[in-house]
Amino acid sequence: MPNTASERQLFRISLRRVLERYSRWVEGSRHLRPLFTTDEEFDKVIHILDPLEFELMLQSRKYKSSEGCALAALTVGKRNDYVNTDSQRMIYFRRDLFSERSAVHELFHFLTHPAFTEAFKGNIDVDEGFTEYFTMKVIAPASDPALPITPASVAAAAASASAGSAAPSARAPEGPKSAYEPFLRKAHQTRAFLKENIIPMLIENQRTDSLKKRVAESSSSAAAAAAAGGTGRQRSNAVSSISYSDFTKRAYFAGDPEMIKIIKEQWT
What we know:
Blueprint: H1 5-26, H2 39-45, E1 46-49, H3 51-60, E2 73-76, E3 90-94, H4 100-111, H5 114-119, H6 124-139, H7 151-162, H8 181-227, H9 247-252, H10 257-267
Parallel strand pairs: 1-3
Antiparallel strand pairs: 2-3
Helix pairs in contact: 1-4, 4-6, 6-8, 8-10
């Protein structure tokens, strides 16, 4: 059975929600173009299958439904996705489990930078943990950003919404979610540790190195001027630095090697 009009509409609503929050990070992705053209092009990329078809697809690709989010959906790319800038990813959904929540989750897999995917290849907990982290930012945007988002907190938001005291967007995720809880918790813990401990240390080290370089350049310039018989004009060259702001987004969406490195060092 091909994708239906209502299924396409649901997926495009999910896509709009992702882009409303993360467009600056993903708008240049080569994978997005077919989703904004004709239904025919859309259906070459997004495949919503009946349960038996979905299971046969998993078997043909040697996946198990217990791996990551493959119970409800699977995002796939060519083996050379990391180096081939022309390759196109595809998403397969199991029709009876297809929902806005599963669509948002798979869209983040779909838009992950291939450098991030390559760096954590085989580490399902990293891939699923950060994918679910971004998913919950879209699914439960009313949650307190200072607190870890858990199924319990999402359920509370849903209860509040049903009572008419919250925005409609603050609703509980649909479909299976229990498999993500340990991954999501680890992603929150890793981000918190990096943000509170590692990033400040790296920034301080960067400032110290920058100051040392400026002092060395100033001394060298003064010595050269004295040797030439005059004070001359002292000049301090700008010292390049690494920005650690938005480190999670820069790793996941932009494939920044430095940001990927610090996450990898903490996750192992």
